[in-house]
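Hi all, a correction to my earlier message: I attached the wrong file for Alcohol acetyltransferase. Here's the right sequence:
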Amino acid sequence: MHVYRAAGATERRCLAKEEIDAYRWVVAVATYSRAPSVAEAYAALHTVIAAHPALSVVVTRVDTAPQLERADQIDLRKHVFEVHDMSMDALLSYVQNEPFSGEDVPRWRVYLVPDGRVAFAMSHTVADGVSTKLFHASFLAALRALRALHALGPCGSADPICPPCQHAMPPPLDDAGLSVSWWYIAQTMLGQLLGQMFAAKTWCGPARRPQTRVSTAVRHIRIPADRVPHILAACRQHGAGLTALVDHITVRALAAALGARGMPTTHLCITTPIDLRRCIPSRQGQMGNIVSAVEETLAASGALDWSAVRATSDKLRKSASTTHNQLVGLLLYAGDLRQWTADKACKPASGSVEVSNMGALVESATPPHSSDWHITALTFSQSGNGVGVPLNISC
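and the right structure:
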């Protein structure tokens, strides 16, 4: 196999979680206007794989110095699976709890449901939530570009054996100009110390983590489409972003649920992943692990405070616009990431909840000859995190 490069710090951290079975997949389920057949999926995947090197990655030397290599070939029969009709909860639960394949198989899968849903699952080591959206955008474009299967040619691209992507794997986040100030390091360490002191008053899940892997439990909730414009209008009126609003609503809803169970709390610690592609122009449109996160302790009681929502919006916006003083930048100073991750798996969580907002998928213009292909809905989900917060909200 061809060696792309050594794994970066963020990739090694996610790999360490996967190796101790504390995390599995990032998933996006798209509902297509009609169900692609296996042959159509194979043909489309030839195009998608050729465009995204992350889909050809195999991680080797996991126990020593992990490196990303390019698979010699990709057997789509190990990646594409037909499943029966089931509820969204059941589908996400099934996909999230599937184990990884062998070490020589790129860690991604596609599940085809008869009703037109297509679930794409990928290892977080070389992909993030936005990557799953990019996959579906590429898959949709490839389906639209397909000719009738009988015209694919003598060596038609529906062959289950697919050549790997020939493009180079983009460099890791380590090489994207990540920098942290001593002030930021000191602030983070102080925040961790205060967080430990504050933990007795803040719900962070069980006092002890499970000794063995616990299956990811999934609950899918759909907001009526006619409410969304009103929610967005309220955000614009108050100069706030949707993600920040979801953050503040989430902590209040969680606090109310905890209070009903006899566990009152006034504040909760929330983590919000942020996409760094905006401040790394070379990574626009590329699949990869290109995220950091913002941690914040929010008031979880009282009426919704739009000024606080606006402050969170500003904080998220500012953080997503720079590679300076990012949480992922601290990984460069973390030493042995495998041991660090294993230690975290034995300690109580330091946060309450994570909110991941992947954003909407905007379709490109539909070519006239293939206007029957559309995506009508997109649902994002991620595995339960055995070294992170006890509850994840994905939208």
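Sorry for the mix-up. The mean pLDDT is 90.
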